[in-house]
Amino acid sequence: MSTYRLKNLLSPRSVALVGASARPVSVGRAVLENIHKAEFKGRFGLVNPRHAEIGGIAAVGSLDRLDFVPELVVITAPAREVPGIIDQAGRRGSAGALIVSAGLGHGPGSLHEAAIAAARKYGMRLIGPNCLGIMMPGVSLNASFAAHMPGAGNLALISQSGAIAAGMVDWAAQRGVGFSGIVTIGDQIDVDIADLLDHFAMDHKTRAILLYIEAIKDARKFMSAARAAARVKPVVVVKSGRMVQGAKAAATHTGALAGADAVYDAAFRRAGVLRVSDLRELFDCAETLGRVEPPAGKRLAILTNGGGIGVLAVDRLVDLGGIPASISAETRKRLDAVLPPTWSGANPVDIVGDADASRYAAALEVLLADPDNDAVLVLNVQTAIAPAADIAATVTTLVSKYREQQRRWAKPVLAAWVGADQNIIQALSGAGIPNYPTEDDAVRGFMHLVRHREVVEELSQVPPAMPDTFVPDARAARQIVAAAIADGRKWLDPVEIKHLLGAYDIAMVPTRAADDVEQAVAYAGEMFAQGVTVVLKIMSRDIVHKSDVGGVVLNLTTPGAVRAAATDILARARKLRPEARIEGVIVQAMVVKAKARELILGLADDPTFGTVVVFGRGGTAVEIINDKALALPPLDLQLARDLIGRTRVSRLLKAYRDVPAVAQDAVAMVLVKLAQMAADIPEIREFDINPLLADETGVTAVDARVAVGPPQRKFAGSGPANFAVRAYPSQWERRLALKDDWRIFVRPLRPEDEPTIHEFLRHVTAYDLRLRFFAPMKEFTHEFIARLTQLDYARAMAFIAFDEATNEMVGVVRLHSDSVYESGEYAILLRSDLKGRGLGWALMQLIIDYARSEGLKTISGDVLRENTTMLEMCRQLGFDVKPDSTEPDLCDVRLKL
């Protein structure tokens, strides 16, 4: 659903436990003892109809007998009793329940369905069932059967596995890492990963969010929540099942390449989530992100008393994309003054094996003051000369002093004491210095910080607009696909494919479909007359990979050669595949481009995330080479470039020796067009172009396969039902005529509108800005505006209005809904010099129409009492206007749809 009532469940003021057992070894007894040991500060009640007390704690027979209304009800009772307990809690006014119990089943008539129905009657939220529980150190609540209670800290953990959560608690206890909250979600009967991402993203006590995921149920909701959370804080995920293979029955190359884990990887990348491979790396992320802020760059200075371990650290740093910081002449001079002449003279700064605490301190001070690095990693290999504990104590004191002086501008300092005793680990951890058992772990920790900073930058980038020259003929393309489906076919024939590509301005070699040998000879003759060589291919909807039956013959230059080749191809296909329907042969002009690169581009269908775009190195050995990358549509040019850049073949697209570079963005544009095709025609199930020839003149498709079928509605709501990320909703573009024949063009906001927004705000007075933002606004940063323009169109929508005559922006209206998609909050801002001409009224009507089309039930907003113009307009539009009960300067306006 949403964050609705989640705060009541995760920071409750009162709790009741229903189902605690008197048996010493039971889940209910363990939960009771954990709640008691954690010393929950709010009111607590124990409910058990068979015992007057358990473990010295008095019990009542039912929730009705409690002398208070519990915000959170924790259920460990048998599964058959769960729906009734939820109904009883709802009648009393409880906000929600944590269902630790297992065995509710699934499907119609199950206890699972009954529990959901009971909760919905009262607007209750449910966590679980079949989960370890929740641990919320901030309110001293341990409603779980974990062995330990974590300390308070700034990491949130959301886990689909209770065992993983318990392991994280044990690890954190050893490292001095604390949590703002740990929630195990079990079967996600209601509260899911996306809901908790929304909650912890807005929780000021949470610095970073850790996820353990086995599978995602609602991909569109997850993508929206993860992208929103990753903009404001690091989100790190480890997903199990990486080696589980995708469906091998895929008929196209792109379908075979798009394995399930590769799609998850693409989804995490699109959402800005940092993916790690295992629990150890997740622990390293927690160690790093829980203690320090991301650096300004990726230049790392390494201070060590062992040359070998320093070199290993540099090797790993370069492997992971980091940069060994350079040592300037000035810094080298300063180091020379405090170090013996035997120091390395470069990065890593090896201060030699006999280095004591004072030498470490002297070198570290110089590196912390050096502007040519972004972070410092301190390594120590224990020796018999200088006690490692003394060095650690000196380093922690120096780093603490440095942080006090620099405050928010302090560089991250990381440490690795090889073979360190627990007291050294505790000293470093106590000083807030991320520390690791090896140099490899430390460098990975640093690169996690770097990657998060890069993610934030990527999420706030302004991608280039689609060239205006590209206007696809989507109607013609849909007719081609619809005709094939009406004919009962699952595959388009080659001529249909050529026309389909043509509708999206994707060049393909001249292609003709011949029913028999003589027609093939005739078509080939026409091509010979143009001075080209031809290639013949078997045409059969049942033979997808033509080369498997020898169904391709190249370099044909005479009618006789074509006649012989066509006869041979047809005979061989009928012999090897007697069950196949043979329609004839394809006659194509043979394109010979000696310096062209063979690529594969296409679309695949994933059961969780819907349509996926695939790119990689093409040719007949495409699966064996397996040089591919995936992305979730929709794409713009920047996303397409990123997709290409994640493959090895991308290097070949550049110039080398006597081979010119591929035409700029020619390949990226084809990827963008394919993504647009997938949005326009959800009936396309799989699509691959293999090979696509690319050179300095552009791109040409040589062969392609397109599988079609009735569209499958994977995701609810508007927008392409096959996209986990909603596409730009062009259907909401409008031309409006206002007072005095003022012509306005209105469209959904796009990422590239950031410069337009900046210019627009120059025409809004300080007074109007205060009415909109409830506070004086002196400046608008790139990050602030980028966050406004980076819409996912799933939970947030904004319409931007332009004067048609001048093409200047004149107003904007926004709507942000909760993920339940029941209510939305609006905001509107107009150019101050253009108010009073009907624009505000028109934009408000448009956003109301949009909300209705999305199925929202209410629109609400906060309006300053002094903003009498807006309040009067809201009344005229049918809004209910009431004073805000908590903010005397505000009015709450609400419209039921």
Automatic annotation (TrEMBL):
Recorded superkingdom: Bacteria
Keyword line: ATP-binding, Ligase, Nucleotide-binding, Tricarboxylic acid cycle
Residues of the N-acetyltransferase domain: 744-897
Xref: Pfam families: Acetyltransf_3, ATP-grasp_5, CoA_binding_2, Ligase_CoA_2, Succ_CoA_lig
InterPro entries to which the protein is assigned, alphabetical: Acyl-CoA_Synth/Transferase (IPR051538), Acyl_CoA_acyltransferase (IPR016181), ATP_grasp_subdomain_1 (IPR013815), CoA-bd (IPR003781), GNAT_dom (IPR000182), Ligase_CoA_dom (IPR043938), NAD(P)-bd_dom_sf (IPR036291), Succ_CoA_lig_flav_dom (IPR032875)
Protein name according to UniProt: Acetyltransferase
SMART domains documented for this protein: CoA_binding
Family matches, as SUPFAM superfamilies: Acyl-CoA N-acyltransferases (Nat), Glutathione synthetase ATP-binding domain-like, NAD(P)-binding Rossmann-fold domains, Succinyl-CoA synthetase domains
